[in-house]
Amino acid sequence: MQSIVHVVLAGLSNGMFIWLVASGLTLIFGVLGVLNFAHGSFYMLGAYVSFSLVRALSPHFYLAMLFGPLVVCLAGWAVERWFLRAVYRLELPYQLLLTFAFVLIFDNLVKIVWGAGALHPPPGLGPLEGSVEILGRKFPIYSLFVIAVGPLVALALWALLERTWIGRIVRAAASDREMAAALGVRVPALFTGVFIFGTWLGAVGGALAVPYVGVLTPGMGESIIIEAFIVAVLGGLGSLKGAFLGALVIGVLNAFGTRFFPAFDMALIFLLMAAVLLVRPRGLFGVARS
Amino acid sequence: MILELDRIDTFYGSSHVLQGVSLAVAEGEVVALLGRNGVGKTTTLRSVIGLTAPRAGSVRFQGQELRGLPPDAIARSGIAYVPDDHRIFPTLTAEENLDIARRLSPRRGAFGKAEVLELFPRLGDLLRHRGASLSGGERKMLAIGRALMAGPALLLLDEPSEGLAPLVVAHLTEVLERIRREGITILLADQNLRFCRRVCSRGYILEKGRVEHQGTMEAIWGDPAVVTKYLVV
What we know:
Chain A has helices at residues 2-32, 39-57, 61-82, 92-114, 141-163, 165-175, 177-182, 187-213, 220-235, 240-260, 265-279, and strands spanning 131-134, 137-140. By secondary structure, chain A is mostly helical. Chain A is globular and about 60 Å long. Chain A starts with a helix and ends in an 11-residue tail after the last helix. In chain B, the strands form two sheets. A six-stranded mixed sheet of chain B has the order 6-7-8-3-9-10, sandwiched between helices. Chains A and B meet through helix 6 and helix 7 of A and helix 2 and helix 3 of B.
C-alpha cells in the first residue's frame, strides 16, 4: 500500500510536467490548428535558460523561474511570426515538417550555447527542499509542490478561457477564425498571443523541471513532446480537459510501468493510447474540427 | 453613396468569380443582389467585408478605400456581415455571441442587447444556450442580432430568407424595415424575389460574375423577360 501510494504520487508529479507541456500544445492546436512538434523544445529551452538564470540570480530562484520562461517566449514569438504564419493554411504534414525542423534547430542551439553534454543542476537549487513523511516513507516536498501547480494551472486556464473577455474571443476565433475577423478580431495578433502563451506554459514546465529532473540534456524536449502528444491524442486533440486527464493517467501509468515492469513501461502507454483510439478515435474529449 | 464597388475582380484560387462587378448603394437604401446559385452574390458580399479580397478594382465605403484592408479593419469601419450559414460561434452562449460583437466594435448604434431582444423576443429565452444547440432559425436571428450589436452603418445579409417559413419571412421583413428606419443601409443577397420586392428599393442581377441588369425592384418584378432569363430556376 505504502509503495503504491508513493508510485501514484511520483506518477502525478511526472504527469504535471507532461500536463504543462501538453496544455500549451493543446491550446495552440485548439486555437491555431497547428500541431507544434517543437513544443518540447520550448520545455527544453525553459529548463536551460532558467538553469542559467538560477545560477546568475542565485539565491533568487523565483526570479529565475519568472524570467526564464519569458525569455523563451521571444523564441516562440519569432517562430510564430516569421515561420508558422506561412503554413497555417497548409496541410498538417507541412506544419509537422516545419516544426520538426525547429526541434533540430533548437537542439543544436542548446548544444552551441550550453554544450552537447548533460548539465547537472546541483541539489538544493530551488526552494521547498527536503521531504515529508507519507505513510512512513519520505516524499520530496518539491514534488508535492509540482502536483499542486498542475491543477492550479488547469483552473487558471479554465477561468481564463471561460470567464474572461479575451477567453471568449479566443474561443470564438478557435471555432471560426474567419467570422471572428469579420467581427473585428485581429486574428493574426491573437494567434501570435496564443502561441506565445502556449510557449510560456511549456517553458514554465521546463523551468519547474530544473530542480526536479537532475539532468538537462539537449534531447530532453523530444522525450517529453512524445508523451505530451500521446496525452493530447488520448484526451482528444484540442481539449484541455482531455489533456489534463490524459497527463494524470499517463504520468501514473508510466510510474507504475517503471516500478513494476521497467522493460515495458513505454509500451504500456502506447497500448493504452491504441486501446482508447480504437474505442474513441477522437480521444476522450475530442470534437470534430470544422 | 455609402458603398461603391468599381469593376472589382475576385478569384477563388485560379477561378475568376467576379469579373468587373460595379454597384453603388446610397445611405439608408436597402439593395438586393439577385441571381441564381453560383453567380457571385455571396462572393460580392465577401469581397466587401474583405474575406475574399478582390484582386482588382475599388471598394469604397463612406469615401474610404477598403481594398487591401483586412476584414477586422473593415468591420471596425462600420460594416457587419451575416453569412448565409450564420456562423454562430458554437462554443459561446447566445449572450456571449451578442456581447462579443459589441465588445469588439468601437461603434455604438441604435441596437443594444435590449433592442435586439425586442426585435427577436425568442432570443431572450436562449441567452444561456450554447450556439451549437440552437436551431437554424434561431441561429439566423442571433446572427442578425450579433451584427446589429456591432453598430454598423452598412449591413451585409447573405440569403436572409432562405429556409424560413412564410410567417417567419414576414417577421424578417418587418425586422429589416425597422433596421432601415434606424438609418442602417442594407445590401442583401437573396433568391426570393417576392421577399426582395417587399424589402428592397433597387436590385442588381448577377450572372456569371457580372452585373447583367439593374433597376428598381418594381421594374425588375414587372419585367417577365428579365425574371425568366436571370432569376427563374
